[in-house]
Specification:
With 823 residues, this protein is of the alpha/beta class. Helices cover 40% and strands 17% of the residues. The radius of gyration is 29 Å and the shape is globular. It binds NADPH dihydro-nicotinamide-adenine-dinucleotide phosphate (NDP).
C-alpha cells in the first residue's frame, strides 16, 4: 500500500470521551433538588422530571419540578440577598465572579461532557467553545464589577432578575445572563430549559463551592407553565431576561407590559450568509459548515440563508455538496464527530415537518448519501436550492441543520434579499474586497455582522438583534445597561419639586374641569390680548390669529380629518387650535420618516451643525416661545424664560454629542478587531410629556435626530402650541424634510397607532401609566423597542434626568462588525 492509497482509504477510528465522571456525579446527586437561598431543597410539588440523552433517547437524570411556591421562595431569597449584594463593593463582587470563572475552568471537562450528554451537541463544541466562552464571560464581567463605580456613575442595580434560558447553549446562555447581572449588583432566579437543566445544576454547585452569599443565585428547574409564568408575573421581580423563540418573547412582552419590569429579549433569526463572487470559496465552504451545521443548526444566529452571487453559485454548491458528503454525524461524545443529535424528538419532528414543506413548495433538497444513526434523534445536513424568497423555508426559523440557498446579481440585490426577513440578528459577508464588505455590513439589518467569518462570539462584543429578533444586548458595555437603572429614578420622591402635569382639564365642550398647575398666576387673565407685563415678563403682543397645522415631510399640512381641537390655558380659555391628527396622518408621517432614512448616513458633523442652527433660530425667537409657555401653562415669565433657555442649551448638548457618542473597537481573543458601531434605531415614534411643552419636546427629539433617527412626535396634549411653533424653526434650519414630523391630537389614540405600526422601530411614551401599558402591549406586534415612564414624571430641567447618556442609549443600538485579519 503506498502513501496515496493509505491517504485515500484512511478512516476515522472511534475517539470517545469517557462519560464515567458524569455518570458518577449524576448517581451521587439525583434526584436533584432546587437551588434556593444557597441550599438544595425538595420541590414543593414533590414531583420530578426526567431529562433525556438525545443521542440515545434514554433518561439521563431526574430533576425537580418547581412550581409557583418554589418561585415565591426563590424570589424572597433573592430579594433579601439583594439588600446586601447591591451594596457590596465592586471589588468584592469582582472577586466572586473571578472565583466562578476559575471554578468553571477547574470543572471544565465534567461540564463539557455533561453538556454534550444532556443536549446532544458534539464534545468538540462543548469542550472548545461553550465552556471556554462561559469562563471568559465571568472573567470579563468580573472586570465590569470592579469598574462599575467609575464607568457607570449614576446607575444602580435593577434588583431581582428573573432569567429564562433555552436549550441550545445551556451553560453559555446561563453565563450570558448571570455574569452581567451579578457584576452590576443584582440577584437572580434562573430557569433553565426543560430539556437541558443539568449544567445549570452543576453551576449551582460551583456557586456553593466558592461561597457566594446565599440567595444571590437561585436555580429552579421545571416546566415553563409552572415556573416560567410564575417568575415572569412575580411582583418581586424587577427585570426579565429571556432567550428563546420569538413567540414566547412576544408573550413575555405582553405579560410584562405596564408592570414597570425591565425586559430584554434575545429571540430567533434567519440570518443571511452572503457570498460575493470574489470570495475565497474554500474558506466559504468551511464558513458554511460553521454557520449552519454547528450545534446541528440549533443556533439563533445560524447562517441559514445562503445568498450567492449568481456567477459562482454552481461552483460553490458543488464544493458544498462534496464537503457535506464528508461530514461525520454520530455519538456526541466521539471527538471526531462533526454533527451530534437534535435536542428532542419534538424538535426533530418540527425540522422534518418544515423540510417536507420545503419539498412540497418546490425547492430542491439535497442530503449526503450516508445514513444517520437509528438510535436517538439525528437529522442529516440538508441543502435546499431553487428556493424562492417568499417560501416558508426561506422565511421561517427551522432551527436545524437545514440550509436554503438563493442567488443575487448585484450588491444592492444582496442587501435587499438579506434584509427580506422579519428578523435581524446576524449576518455574514464573504468577499476579498474589504471595501465592498465594509460598505455592505452597515446596510444589513442585523445586530452582528461577520466579515469573512461566522458564529464568532466574545464577552467584549455585545450580541442581540433588531426587529423580531428582540432587543437589548448581551456582552460588551452595552449589555450592562440591561442590568442597571438611573439612580435618580429611585432617589426622587413622587412630588420631586416638579410642577404637576396638567392632565385632561377640559371636557369636549370646553368647560373647565380640574386645573392643577404649580403656580398659575393669581390674576384674572385676558387671553385675547396679553399684556406687555404679563406675570412680570416682557412679552410681545400676539400676532394675527393663525391655525397651526401639522408638520409632515417638511411641509405644514392640514389634518386628514378636517377637524381641529381647541387648546386651553389653565383657566379654561381657548388660546388656539391645532389639527386633530388621525391614523392616516400618522401613516403619512411614518412614510415620510422612512423616506428620510438618508439622515442616518449624513455625517455626524452635518447633524451637529443643523442642531446648532436650530438652537440659533430658536434663540432668535426666545421671547415669543416664552410667551407661548406662559399663555399655555400659566407659568411665570421667569420660568418660561428658563424653559426656553434650557431647550436651547439642550440642543447645544446634542449638537455636541452628535459627533462624540461613538462606538468602540474591541479586541476579542482572535487576530482581528470588532467594530462596535452605534447605529440609529430608525423611525422613532414619541409621545411627549404634558409638562414642559417645549423642553419636553426638544429633550426627546434632539437626541433622537442627533443620533440619525427620524421621528414622529406627538406634542404635549395639553400644550401643543410650543412644539408646533417649532416647525418654523425647523424649516429655517436646513433640517431635511421628514426627519422630524409633528402630529397633534389625542396622545393616546395617536400613540396606539404608532405603537401598532410595523414600520416604527421604537416607541417612546411619556404619559400616564395606563398609556405606558398600552404602548408596551402593542409593541409586541413587531417587537419594537419601547421607552416609557410608567407614569412617573421626571424633572426635565435637571441635567441628570432630562438629558445625557440615557437618552443617547435609547436613540441607538450597537452593531458589532467582526473583521479578522492576516493571511
Ligand atoms: P421556547 O422559547 O419555548 O423556550 C425557551 C425558554 O423559555 C425555555 O426555558 C422554556 O421553558 C421557556 N418558556 C417557554 N414558554 C414560556 C412562557 N410562556 N413563559 C416563560 N418561559 C417560557 O423555545 P422552544 O424550546 O419551544 O423551541 C421552539 C423554537 O424556538 C425553536 O424551534 C427555535 O426556532 C426557537 N428557539 C430559539 C432560540 C434562540 O436562541 N433564539 C433558543 C431556543 C429555541 P421550557 O424549556 O420548560 O419549555
Amino acid at each position: 500500500m503506498n502513501v496515496m492509497e493509505i491517504y485515500e482509504t484512511m478512516e476515522y477510528g472511534p475517539a470517545p470521551e469517557s462519560p464515567t465522571l458524569v455518570l458518577d456525579w449524576l448517581k451521587e446527586h439525583q434526584p436533584f433538588g432546587l437551588f434556593i437561598n444557597g441550599q438544595w431543597v425538595k420541590p414543593a410539588s414533590g414531583k420530578y422530571l426526567d431529562t433525556i440523552n438525545p443521542s440515545t433517547g434514554k433518561p439521563l437524570a431526574q430533576v425537580a419540578a418547581a412550581n409557583s411556591n418554589d418561585v415565591d421562595a426563590a424570589v424572597a431569597a433573592a430579594r433579601v440577598a439583594a439588600e446586601t449584594w447591591s451594596k457590596t463593593p465592586g471589588h468584592t463582587r469582582a472577586r466572586y465572579l473571578y472565583a466562578i470563572a476559575r471554578h468553571i475552568q477547574k470543572h471544565s471537562r465534567l461540564l463539557a461532557v455533561l453538556e454534550s450528554m444532556d443536549n446532544g451537541k458534539p464534545i468538540r463544541e462543548t469542550r472548545d467553545l461553550d465552556i471556554p466562552l462561559v469562563a471568559r464571560h465571568f472573567y470579563y464581567h468580573a472586570g465590569w464589577a470592579q469598574l462599575m463605580a467609575s464607568e457607570l456613575p449614576g446607575y444602580e442595580p435593577v434588583g431581582v432578575v428573573g432569567q429564562i434560558i433555552p436549550w441550545n447553549f445551556p451553560l453559555l446562555m446561563l453565563s450570558w445572563k448571570i455574569a452581567p447581572a451579578l457584576a452590576m449588583g443584582n440577584t437572580v432566579v434562573l430557569k433553565p430549559a426543560r430539556y437541558t437543566p443539568l449544567t445549570a445544576l452543576k453551576f449551582a454547585e460551583i456557586v456553593q463551592e466558592i461561597g457566594l452569599p446565599p440567595g444571590v443565585v437561585n436555580i429552579l428547574t421545571g416546566e415553563a407553565s409552572q415556573v416560567g409564568d410564575a417568575l415572569v408575573l412575580h411582583p418581586g421581580v424587577n427585570k426579565i431576561a429571556f432567550t428563546g423563540s420569538t413567540d414566547v418573547g412576544r408573550t413575555l412582552r405582553r405579560a410584562t407590559a405596564g408592570s414597570g419590569k425591565k425586559l430584554s429579549l434575545e429571540l430567533g433569526g434567519k440570518s443571511p450568509f452572503i457570498v460575493f463572487d470574489d470570495a475565497d470559496l474554500d474558506s466559504v465552504v468551511e464558513g458554511v459548515v460553521d454557520a449552519i451545521w454547528f450545534n446541528q443548526g440549533q443556533v439563533c444566529c445560524a447562517g441559514s440563508r445562503l445568498l450567492v452571487q449568481e456567477d459562482i453559485a454552481d461552483r460553490l454548491i458543488n464544493k458544498l455538496r462534496a464537503r457535506m458528503e464528508k461530514l461525520r454525524i454520530g455519538d456526541p461524545l466521539d471527538k471526531a464527530v462533526d454533527i451530534g443529535a437534535i435536542v428532542s424528538s419534538a424538535q426533530l419532528q418540527e425540522i422534518q415537518r418544515l423540510v417536507a414543506q420545503g419539498v412540497e413548495e418546490g425547492a430542491v433538497m439535497w442530503q449526503p448519501s450516508w445514513a444517520c444513526p437509528t438510535e436517538g434523534y439525528f437529522f442529516p445536513p440538508t441543502l435546499f436550492t431553487n428556493v424562492s424568497p417568499a417560501t416558508t423555508i426561506a422565511q421561517v426559523e427551522i432551527f436545524g441543520p437545514v440550509l436554503v440557498s438563493m442567488t443575487f446579481r448585484t450588491p444592492a440585490e444582496a442587501v435587499e434579499l438579506a434584509n427580506n426577513t422579519r428578523y435581524g440578528l446576524a449576518a455574514s459577508v464573504w468577499s476579498e474586497n474589504i471595501n465592498l464588505a465594509l460598505d455592505v455590513a452597515p446596510k444589513l439589518k442585523a445586530g452582528t455582522v461577520w466579515v469573512n467569518c461566522t458564529n464568532l462570539f466574545d464577552a467584549s462584543s455585545g450580541f442581540g438583534g433588531y426587529r423580531e429578533s428582540g432587543f437589548g444586548r448581551e456582552g460588551g458595555k452595552e449589555g450592562l445597561y440591561e442590568y442597571v437603572r438611573p439612580m435618580w429614578e429611585t432617589s426622587s420622591s413622587s412630588s420631586n419639586g416638579l410642577p404637576i402635569a396638567i392632565e385632561s382639564t377640559h371636557s369636549s365642550d370646553g368647560s373647565e374641569q380640574a386645573v392643577s398647575t404649580d403656580e398659575a398666576g393669581e390674576d384674572e387673565m385676558d387671553h385675547t390680548t396679553v399684556s406687555e407685563s404679563f406675570n412680570g415678563y416682557h412679552l410681545a403682543l400676539p400676532a394675527i390669529d393663525r391655525t397651526p397645522k401639522m408638520f409632515i415631510n417638511g411641509k405644514q399640512v392640514r389634518p386628514d380629518s378636517g377637524y381641529s381641537r381647541d387648546v386651553y390655558d389653565p383657566r379654561g380659555h381657548v388660546i388656539g387650535q391645532v389639527g386633530e391628527g388621525n391614523r392616516k396622518d400618522i401613516r403619512n408621517a411614518v412614510e415620510a420618516a422612512h423616506a428620510a432614512g438618508g439622515w442616518a448616513s449624513s455625517t455626524t458633523h452635518n447633524r451637529a451643525q443643523i442642531l446648532y442652527y436650530i438652537a440659533e433660530n430658536l434663540s432668535v425667537r426666545e421671547a415669543e416661545f416664552a410667551h407661548r409657555l406662559v399663555q399655555q401653562t400659566g407659568c411665570s415669565g421667569a420660568d418660561a424664560a428658563t424653559e426656553v433657555q434650557a431647550a436651547i442649551s439642550r440642543l447645544f448638548s446634542y449638537a455636541a454629542w452628535a459627533d462624540k457618542y461613538e462606538g468602540a473597537v474591541h479586541r476579542p481573543p482572535l487576530r482581528g478587531v470588532v467594530l462596535a458601531m452605534k447605529e440609529p434605531i430608525g423611525v422613532i415614534g414619541m409621545a411627549c410629556p404634558s409638562e414642559y411643552p417645549l423642553l419636553g419636546f426638544i429633550s426627546l427629539v434632539a437626541p433622537a435626530i442627533a443620533m440619525g433617527n427620524t421621528v414622529i412626535a406627538i406634542p404635549s396634549q395639553q400644550s401643543p402650541l410650543s412644539a408646533i411653533d417649532c416647525y418654523q424653526v425647523l424649516e429655517t434650519s436646513d433640517l431635511p424634510a421628514g426627519v422630524v414630523n409633528i402630529v397633534t391630537g389625542d396622545r393616546d389614540t395617536l400613540s396606539q397607532v404608532l405603537a401598532d405600526h410595523d414600520d416604527v422601530e421604537s416607541m417612546w411614551y411619556f404619559g400616564p401609566a395606563e398609556g405606558c401599558k398600552r404602548v408596551e402591549l402593542a409593541s409586541a406586534g413587531n417587537m419594537k423597542r419601547t421607552w416609557v415612564n410608567y407614569g412617573h414624571q421626571r424633572n426635565w430641567l435637571d441635567l441628570v434626568q432630562g438629558e445625557g447618556e440615557e437618552f443617547l442609549h435609547e436613540s441607538t443600538h450597537v452593531k458589532n462588525i467582526w473583521v479578522p485579519y492576516g493571511e
